[in-house]
Amino acid sequence: MSSGLKIVEEQQKPIEKLQIYPTANSGVSPFWREKYDKDAKKYWDRFYRHHGDRFFKDRHYLDKEWNSYFSVSESSKVILEVGCGAGNTVFPLIATYPHIFVYACDFSTRAVDLVKAHNEYTEKRVCAFACDLTGDGLDNHISPSSVDIVTMIFVLSAVSPEKMPFVLQNIKKVLKPNGCILFRDYAVGDLAQKRFSGKNQNISENFYVRGDGTRAFYFSNEFLETLFSEQGFEVEELDVCCKQVENRSRELVMNRRWLQATFRQSNGSKNPSDRMTPAKLDQSERQNSIQSKSEELKLKEVVDNTDIDISDGLAMEMFGASPSSHEMNVFKLKDSSFNIKLLSKEYQHTCKSTGLMLWESARLMASVLDRNPNIVSGKRVLELGCGCTGICSMVAARSANLVVATDADTKALTLLTENITMNLQSPLLGKLKTGVLEWGNKEHIEDIKGLACGGFEVIIGTDITYVAEAIIPLFETAKELILQKKGDSEVQEKPALILCHVFRRVDEPSLLSAAAKFGFKLVDRWAVNSRDSPIGNVIDRWFSDKDLVAEIPSSALHILYFQME
């Protein structure tokens, strides 16, 4: 009795609007933190494969900022550029100072290849090699205590804070006793950091992951000075630099902040135990910090004329406004193909919207509809959670009388409209409609119902069953929109709800239980390479084409076929 009462209450209780994605800024999960660290090289390789040498500006300001260090009248000077990238520091240096030799290293092999492919690369002046500074010994490539100057330009920020001491110790192995490090990197308070603060991309304090998987740390004066002093370096110069970057075409004004510093190996007179950690900073040091801020304000007017390394492209990407965050994919069917615009793979792992991607279940269901047009032929079809690709809806439009593709994500629907326009022409364009549909939203449901003159004969959903809290609203919405039986139900084919998915956080018994509460009966089920519990012969007929079986994108896919009781 109590269970039956509970079902009635759930059916009558108004369905609340769901926030499928968390609103709290919970940051990056431990799993992803480890993955970003372990796969850092892969993400930077992908970065340079995508951008080549077009992303960063050549650093022609080096002679203005540090000329006194490079122009000392010696017969030769040895430079080490760590995190050389595509050579934006290396080649301006060798063009300006003919007496220097530059070692250039990066842990991205693609970046090193770009340096070696540069038309100014010559082994007489440059030696480029791949090296992970957090694990590989620099002294395997460079003689110990042989380097005069190390340049670290926007590189240390890409390293996990806990690994930064290892990088500095690695550099000390090859740096001469009185050698120096020229440093420039992101500062706390930079606009890019402020933009990160509103997203779930925080790895640890002041450490973030970008949309492409690369990482960025934002340094404070205190952190940087303590880090270097604990590793045996003395500060010769440390400034906070500010610059206002304007992109007139996008009407954006970006306040950029970075630290510029010079460090030199100390003479060893200091006792390491006397070096201060951030937790040991006393009141006098805090007062110095306050004074440095006032000095920073005085400095701003000067550095506003200073060149900045970061290209407009990087600034746009870091601020989430990059035009390159999407890519074109070709989805092939037996006798046709679709050009689909969707979120680029580099950005999918930090994107909260699952609707901006192409899922395997959608690929399978689109192939099924392509080979079996009778499933939707002459019928009114609704797709729930269609996302930006809409491939199932576009395929269904070929034979259905009407297709309505719906999603609650307006960004996905905007991109969907582009994909439909790119791939369909009249009269198919006239048969495919799009609409906003948040499950359980009565206003949205009525708007969609009005397009179908009473209801839909086929409702399709691909990978829309992964959030437990959304299952009840899903079936409640499907019940409202499916065509109700009229007249002789034995003569007319019953309307159907078809779900194709990979089971994730919601198992099959939970789905079936929720479906039954709203009058849906499981008529058939199908899984790859499985004949367990056959209850119908509807879906097996769809796979009579052996070529279709061979094209199944995942062995974990399932299809559930429901009809109303």
From TrEMBL:
One function term, GO molecular function aspect: S-adenosylmethionine-dependent methyltransferase activity
Keywords from the named record: Methyltransferase, Transferase
Recorded superkingdom: Eukaryota
Chain spans, region Disordered: 264-293
GO biological process, one term: methylation
Similarity remark: Belongs to the methyltransferase superfamily. METL family.
Domain (Methyltransferase type): residue spans on this chain: 80-181
Pfam family, one: Methyltransf_16
Protein name: Methyltransferase type 12 domain-containing protein
